[in-house]
Amino acid sequence: MNFELSPAQQQLVADTRAFALAEVAPYAAQWDADEHIPRQQIQKYADHGWFGMTLPPQYGGRGLTALDAVLVIEEVAKHCGVSARLIVDHNFGAVGTILNFGTEEQRERVLTAVCRGHKLMSIGMTEPEAGSALTDLITSAREDGDYYRLNGEKRWITGAGEREYTLVYARFDGVAGANGIGAILVEEGTPGYIYGPRIPSLGVRGVREGVLRFEQARVPKANLVVPPGSAFGNLMSAYNGQRVGASAVALGLAQGAFDYALAYADQRQQFGKRITDFQNTQFKLADMLINLEAARLLIYRAAAGAKATITERQASSVAKVFASEMAIRVTSAAIQLLGAEGYGRHHPVERMFRDARAFTLAGGSAEIQRLGIAVGVLKRPLPQT
Ligand SMILES: Cc1cc2nc3c(=O)[nH]c(=O)nc-3n(C[C@H](O)[C@H](O)[C@H](O)COP(=O)(O)OP(=O)(O)OC[C@H]3O[C@@H](n4cnc5c(N)ncnc54)[C@H](O)[C@@H]3O)c2cc1C
Prior knowledge:
Blueprint: H1 7-23, H2 28-34, H3 39-47, H4 66-77, H5 81-89, H6 93-101, H7 104-116, E1 121-124, E2 140-144, E3 147-158, E4 165-172, E5 181-187, E6 193-198, E7 209-220, E8 224-226, H8 232-265, E9 269-270, E10 273-274, H9 279-304, H10 313-338, H11 340-343, H12 349-356, H13 366-378
Parallel strand pairs: 1-4, 2-4
Antiparallel strand pairs: 2-3, 3-7, 4-5, 5-8, 6-7, 9-10
Helix pairs in contact: 1-4, 4-5, 4-8, 5-8, 6-8, 8-9, 8-10, 8-12, 9-10, 10-12, 10-13
Bound molecules: flavin-adenine dinucleotide (FAD).
């Protein structure tokens, strides 16, 4: 077991840190206030090689490991959770699904465009009546010659209306249960594919969370990525990487809040002393660091065990539960250390706290992760799963 980063990984972190300090940190508060990150900014991330890092070079990727991607995501999230989420979405999740389950034609067409930043990717799973119980989804796909006709509604889709591709999970030809679910790539401009309203949210405001509607949307069969009847567990395994990526965003946000609060507390004076001279502050800082270090080890372990975009389920769920709950604790503690200043929008810790709150929900709730972990502990399926 080696806890040291390789020289190449140290270089990757140093490069990311320099770029994030120059190109991300100065603008993060503005993007939060605007509730938008400009597309030319996102293009910089692709140009800097942050999209498709984990993909093979033949599709425009860099062939890096999941741990390498996690290091980049963590570093960026110290300054901007939304930018870090963009990197997650363009290395794991739907991108991993296309790499592992798509056709060679899809890999060449779609992944190459994603790595270049020419096309951005969303994941369309959640529906008004199917969140945690994903296998209850009712968005339907029916065969119609060389096309499928899609009907239904998706909710809480990150990037809805801002990204050209959405990997949509649908029920094919009315087959009930997990066996009827497959995934098809829907492209912007598809007839019958409608962007619904934005869902205003507590945090991660630089990206649009929204509704997608399909009204007889006509999608070519060539865009079917995962046919129905494929083992649902295998299909979802591509999201183990997404969980690790989301955990790294939570970790970076918490580390960013810790760094900021430490610098503030060490110069703030009350009762004629620095507040770091009070034992309460010292213990708070120590507890924050313990939380950060524990999360980091769990995330790195989950990422190190990953084969490119696929990670072991148990390790990724353990990391996600701990890191997402840790980030809420640590960003909240950072606000407390700044006193009233921490509650103000002129310091970044309130934004980091709001952003961190997303991760016990997005990408599968902490409760559903715990259920998955319990399945591993008990070694049998549970009724709710
Ligand atoms: C910021 C953000 C971004 C998101 N981005 C996307 C996206 O890009 N694409 C996408 O498809 N979805 C996305 N989601 C949706 C997300 O995946 C769902 O919110 C999540 O799966 C939970 O579903 P739900 O919100 O419907 O909650 P529900 O399933 O209604 O659950 C409500 C509560 O009940 C708990 N619960 C449910 N079932 C059980 C059970 N069996 N045992 C114990 N507790 C249970 C849940 O943990 C939760 O606390 C996003 C959500 C957020 C907040």
